[in-house]
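Teaching assistant's notes for section 4

Start the section by putting this record on the projector. Ask students to predict, before seeing the second block, whether Single-stranded DNA-binding protein will look compact or extended. Collect guesses on the board.
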Amino acid sequence: MILTHKTGVLLHGTLAKDPVLKDVGQKQVLKFDVKAHSVKTGTGNWEGLYVQVNVWHGLDKWDGLLLKGDAVTVFARELKSREYNGKTYYDVDADDIQPGGMVIFRWMQNLIDLCTEAPAPPEPALTQEPTPFDEPAPVQTSLSGGQMYPGEDLADYAPRASQAAAPAGPAAGTPEADALIDDDADDLPF
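Reveal the predicted structure now:
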């Protein structure tokens, strides 16, 4: 089926043969023929209309994915025709290719087959390295037994409780303390 419109061409059909990757000067092109239309003639023979499709971009994505007989829909800007030995040949430069449903199912099956053929993951090996699931090492909470330098004890560096300091002045409630308070009472502004 070929649909032409002022914005482009839609071509739907099956591949007549496997795609071929060809070198054209400095570039490469993927070429395949699409059987777009077939009609039974009065003699009982089938005549088909074939369109050559040229894929210039994304060759790495398409090479090896399409096979003879696959249904495809090709979008292009224009349908070109040329005469040669009394026959008309058609070709398009593909802008986009949409594979048919069975092609997609074949690709999915190939992907599933590749995944099931993958080797099993290796068995986990025991190591002596710590993991986040190991119990944490006990934390030392006292200074006894710890060393900062060989031969020294951390307890030597611990702050010590100081002894109660003796009062600097006379004890409260004694006549000497009362005398100090009385002497200061004259200096106060109130």
